[in-house]
Amino acid sequence: MIKYSLKCTNCNLTFESWFASSKEYEKLKKKKLLNCHYCNTTDVEKSLMAPSLISKNIDVIKDKELKKYNKIKKKISAYQKFIKNNFEYVGSNFAYEARSIHYNEKKKQKAIYGSASKDEIKELKDEGIDTQMIPWVEDKKN
């Protein structure tokens, strides 16, 4: 079955009708069996129509994407919790602290986290200092 949006060329009325197939529509049109129910003319043409099935598919896709997003967000939140509980927060001094730990062998090795620019991260990696960037999800509980 297929649904077409039809338009009367005589009175400009727009209406919808179901057909067994597109060939069935063409056959009925050729035999002049399609008519406008308002002015009764057979001057009826197909007009553009968006398929209604797409919106249902989009809703399913959006639902799947939302579930996937929430699953990833939950995993990132678990990583954040681990980092907050086991690493020392150094704020925007991350690059300085990372260098200090790397180059000062006497200084106690500690795990740190904080913020740094992309350029600072690149410079640290160029110096052989192992760093990782992870996405950070803000807590919206406050």
Please sum up the structure shown.
With 142 residues, the chain is an alpha+beta fold. It has helices at 22-30, 53-86, 94-103, 118-126, and strands spanning 2-8, 14-19, 44-47, 88-91, 112-114. It folds into two domains: 2-47, no CATH class; 57-126, no CATH class.
Description:
It is a single chain. The chain has 142 residues and is an alpha+beta fold. The chain has 2 domains: 2-47, no CATH class; 57-126, no CATH class. The protein is built from 4 helices and 5 strands. Strands 2-1-3 form a 3-stranded antiparallel sheet. Strands 4-5 form a two-stranded parallel sheet. It starts with a strand and ends in a 16-residue tail after the last helix.
Give the total of domains.
Answer: 2
Q: Sheet bearing the most strands, described?
A: 3 strands, antiparallel
Shape: rod-shaped
Alpha-carbon distance between the termini?
A: 54 Å
Structure summary, number of beta strands: 5
Can you tag this structure with a few keywords?
142 residues; alpha+beta; 2 domains; three-stranded antiparallel sheet; two-stranded parallel sheet; 4 helices; 5 strands; 44% helix; 17% strand; rod-shaped
What topology emerges from the helices and strands here?
Layout: E1 2-8, E2 14-19, H1 22-30, E3 44-47, H2 53-86, E4 88-91, H3 94-103, E5 112-114, H4 118-126
Parallel strand pairs: 4-5
Antiparallel strand pairs: 1-2, 1-3
